[in-house]
Specification:
The protein is an alpha/beta fold. It has helices at 29-34, 77-83, 122-131, 180-183, 194-206, and strands at 5-15, 21-27, 40-43, 54-57, 60-62, 67-73, 90-97, 110-115, 136-142, 158-163, 170-171, 187-191, 214-217, 233-235, 241-243, 250-252.
Length: 267
């Protein structure tokens, strides 16, 4: 895990990459160099009565230009304040924090499974997987086509889509795109709402896929980001709990007790 630092970063661009989401591009060479796919930053927000920082996963980095991107939904006063930032505004970052994805695996294929806004953590991961020569199949699901991250943001992948209403790709869950041939010799990287992740775990048994070959990025509430407040616990297989902010957010699926995990937060 990289050493966390606090710094004021300047907003360079604000855009809406898909319906319901906002993307902020920040200029911060140190953050861009330090962040790994799957890690997050605690971002200070200036909304009234918003005392705690808000956790946002790294969407992508550009180390050459010293840029870092975040993609998020507006779900409360904190994210609404952040979404109202524009070019030239300053944002206070603390991070990077947590455990990112483990990408080593030789030339073994990688299958990324993104549900809803879970796609926000994947552009950086795809870049790193491709940089070390791993072929990537990308499965993306959303409620409607307008909420899918555009294909141009995920170049050189085998992209397969699913939507709840059938407006793009398969009608159904993104997990329905998994097939025995696709996962037979692949590692799985997944992020999305907890119900989607549970469905993925159920599918793993049907597909005879070992949970140790699945890495999930958990979406849970986080208060401090350092393992102090204990607000982000996830049940650990064998008893006890993991802390999403320090043991995760990215963990092997076989470390989690999926029977006990709750759907406390997603989006």
């Amino acid at each position: 895990m990289s050493l966390a630092v606090q710094a004021k970063s300047t907003v360079l661009e604000r855009s809406t990459p898909m319906a319901g989401a906002v993307e902020l591009v920040l200029e911060d060479a140190e953050a861009a160099a330090a962040a790994k796919p799957g890690q997050f930053f605690q971002i200070a927000v200036g909304a009234p009565h918003a005392i705690l920082r808000r956790p946002y996963s790294v969407a992508w980095t550009d180390q050459r230009q010293g840029r870092i991107g975040f993609i998020f939904n507006v779900v409360g006063v904190g994210s609404a304040w952040l979404a109202s930032r524009h070019a030239g505004d300053e944002v206070d970052l603390l991070g990077p924090l947590g455990q990112g994805f483990t990408v080593e695996g030789g030339a073994r294929p990688a299958v990324c499974v993104a549900g809803g806004l879970g796609v926000a953590t994947f552009p950086a991961l795809v870049d790193e997987l491709q940089a070390i020569g791993r072929p990537v199949t990308f499965l993306q699901g959303a409620r409607i086509a307008a909420r899918l991250l555009p294909a141009t943001r995920l170049p050189r992948v085998d992209l397969r889509l699913a939507t709840d209403d059938g407006s793009a790709g398969l009608r159904g869950s993104v997990v329905d795109l998994l097939t025995p041939a696709l996962v037979s010799d692949a590692d799985i990287f997944a992020c999305g709402p907890t119900p989607m992740l549970r469905r993925l775990i159920d599918a793993a048994e049907r597909l005879e896929l070992q949970l140790a070959r699945i890495q999930v990025a958990l979406e849970t509430p986080m208060g401090c980001g350092f393992g102090t407040c204990l607000g982000c616990v996830a049940p650990r297989r064998g008893g006890g709990y993991l802390l999403t902010c320090t043991d995760g957010p990215c963990v092997r699926a076989d470390r989690i007790d999926w029977e006990r995990i709750g759907d406390a937060f997603h989006g």
